[in-house]
């Protein structure tokens, strides 16, 4: 569109320039009466000024007077010529150099305007220059003398309303381009929105799959240990543990079928003890010290609370803890959980990254239990879901403390 505009503007200027060039040669007829030649007037003025018969003020005054006398006629002349096209034209013809020959004496030190229209130039669209020699034979005191002057001039003109003229002539093209660009932009936005929506769906699917694959490990490991224990010796206390792990597996499977709305089970006061018992059974070599002060049913999803407790405790085991303390307190519609250990601890520079997805502390992860870096990510996600807060306090070689606060309404 911009290049088309420039081409059209250049074509209009070229047309106007050709028209003005044809008529600048006739400016004598336009601005002077018959039988009076401006060339003779100019030649006489050049001679008088060169011979110091007139002052510089009178010499320059001649050009200024000529400009004022011809301004109306030239403006009318140009306006009438381009009246049909509705061009508003500003033009100016000036002498840039007048040199007397053969002495090569300059008569002017700055340009003088010979013709100018009422419309003043702002920024010349086209500038053309010319050079010629004026000469005449004069006889004074019976001596013939040739008077020659080398004159350089510039003709400048500008179409003041060029933008509106070009726009009128290209309005249809501009509208078509605008419609086309708008259509492309709308299509682009629509495509990007669809891509973003599909990307979100893929991310949700990946999150669910990552969550389930991570959470499957604990109940499966617990069931394996329980199966081995039953093979060695029948113990009826194992059956509730197995039932709990099967229920947890069923809960995880329901996450893959979100369209099938399953019942969200609130957490009972005794469920917290079951979480700790399952951990103690799975990791018999680790001491789990719990202090649970919850006496009523709370409006939290049981499987999500189990995920928080077990992910944090398993994370402590993974990083070398031999003692894990779990404190749970229900107070004034706020559930507080504190899990502390005596493990390897976390470096200060790692603290801001531990809740990122797939992030693992490589330098300390030297134990047999490996992971994908999802445990703390899901813990943080669940806490955010309940609009809670989590605080981490850790010192290398001394251990880590996780403090969690979950608000709820009765």
Assess the beta-strand content as a share of residues.
15-25%
Q: Which stretches are low in confidence, meaning pLDDT under 50 for 5 or more residues running?
A: 28-36, 364-369
Structural class by SSE content: alpha+beta
What's the total count of β strands?
12
Shape: rod-shaped
Q: Which whole number gives the mean pLDDT? A: 81
Topology pattern, helix = H, strand = E: HHHHEEEEEHHHEHEEHEEHEE
Write a compact overview of the structure shown:
The protein has ten helices and twelve strands. It has 410 residues and is an alpha+beta fold.
What does this structure look like?
The chain is of the alpha+beta class and 410 residues long. Helix content is 47%, strand content 24%. It contains 10 helices and 12 strands. It has helices spanning 2-24, 27-31, 38-50, 56-81, 162-169, 171-232, 238-254, 271-282, 302-318, 375-385; strands spanning 89-101, 105-106, 112-116, 126-140, 143-159, 266-267, 287-293, 298-301, 323-331, 334-341, 389-395, 399-407. Strands 1, 2, 3, 4 and 5 form a 5-stranded antiparallel beta sheet that branches. A hairpin with a 2-residue loop joins strand 4 (126-140) and strand 5. Helix 9 packs antiparallel against helix 10 (375-385).
